[in-house]
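Consider a concrete sample entry:
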Amino acid sequence: MLLTKWGEALDRELPLPEYPRPQLKRESFLNLNGVWSCAFTQSSAPPEEFDGEILVPFAPESPLSGVGRVLQPGEYLWYRRSFSLPEGFNIGRVLLHFGAVDQVARVYLNGEDVCVHTGGYLPFSADITGLLREGENVLTVRVADGTDRSFHTRGKQKLKPGGIWYTPVSGIWQTVWCESVPLNYISSLFITPHLDDGSVELVCGGEGAVRAVIDGEAAYEFAAGEAAVLKLENIHPWTPEDPYLYRLELRLGEDRVESYFALRSVGIGPDRSGAKRLLLNGKPYFMNGLLDQGWWPDGLYTAPSDEALAFDIAAAKAMGFNLLRKHVKVEPARWYYHCDRLGMLVWQDMPNGGGKYSAATVSAPLLTGRHGRDDRYSAFGRREEEGRREFMEELLDMVSCLYNSPSIVMWVIFNEGWGQFDSDKCAEAVMELDPTRIIDRASGWHDQGTGELRSVHLYFDDYKYKPDKAGRCVVLSEFGGYALPISGHAVAAKPFGYKKFDSQEKFRRALMLLYDGQIRPACTKGLAAAVYTQLTDVETELNGLITYDRRVIKLSPADIQKIINVPPLK
């Protein structure tokens, strides 16, 4: 079994103790992570006894959970723990928060229904004030998860993992916590930067007058529930090279929250030669990145510590990359906070879902070069109207949830045809909610020929840049995938990679030839971004620049910097 150094040092009494929501932070915070009682049942009725323990927030399939068992379709996983509120904690309302629970969660407090939530990747909350008792309270959660046997979003989870598909993740996999707020409080916050006129637009949920203080100096007052555009005295754009964050304090009556924001803009436009480029702060900017799947050998979806979350981002930056494509997974809020403060651009994928994919449909562009229409629902595993509706709702919820993070510059709606449907309609809905970012409608293939972006995947042939016939900006959103197993740091099973190497020197030379012979020449001709597969190994997929246990970087960061370097665009 592989363990990271953070997994070895894990504090089982209180894992992941950090405040989980950096852009809406209050002093009120009761962390409910730790050892809970658990039980597996075949019935939806509560178990007669809880005969096991599980370490929250680690999925039962993960080593760190202490369970080591896959929740099967048709089964139920039950959690239970008791807690008491600290004296003086309740100042009006008490809110219960779950960072993420995969897949369908029903929550009870003191035997009473609290809420039901479907979807394994986004946070949800409930006001539990009226259900609380003096002294001890009993919190119970029931979870069901169909993994790849349902149309729900699932990312790369598979009941029979192997190759590019990985071990299932079920149940609670992000922090569980409580906070207390006044009766009237800041219930939501949306931040939109306007770099061109040096302002920031804020919309705060609540009632009454909001007071905002930026960087501890400039003060503003505006009405809650209405958009307020605040002119800034200090204009300091955010870039990966200079990730400046403005500190933001907000007060609404007795409620006080801490937050932050950045000034930056993204878009698509021509460079001096007329080639379509990705723009950062109005200037052509080559986004040189890595595919980042966010899996851990000991925690699966859950990083064993906040330091571990930051390690991946800092390591990618030390290698010279300025972009991470977060692949078919949504991370905890603290991961985006680390990208914001460290200076790492993010392309955020929507996790895929749908029924069983037809190999003939999904692979057709690889073999024939033809891209199918994505309104053929059955061919793409999207026959169920309920599943399509649920995906759209979750897509928009994801955009709303992550809207404030300045590091996110692109939304990726579908990947390689997995559960794809009506991509143009999905993109229109996202653009209506968030007109400030770029959208990749169909990363890889089954391109509908629309939008501003042509997104290409290539693993088996040499890449030669070709301008898009529709005049769109061209990005290479996946390529490479070179595998180098490192003895003692790889899962002991059949390794997977698109090209395999048996020595560090052969691996280094292959990467050099790849960037020298394909990526840099393409960049000079008009390629706007390149995303190498991938940051870390994942289970049997050994094509990472870092081993799965994060103990070995396969080449020195200085060597990788030299290999991937692309001159600045003009």
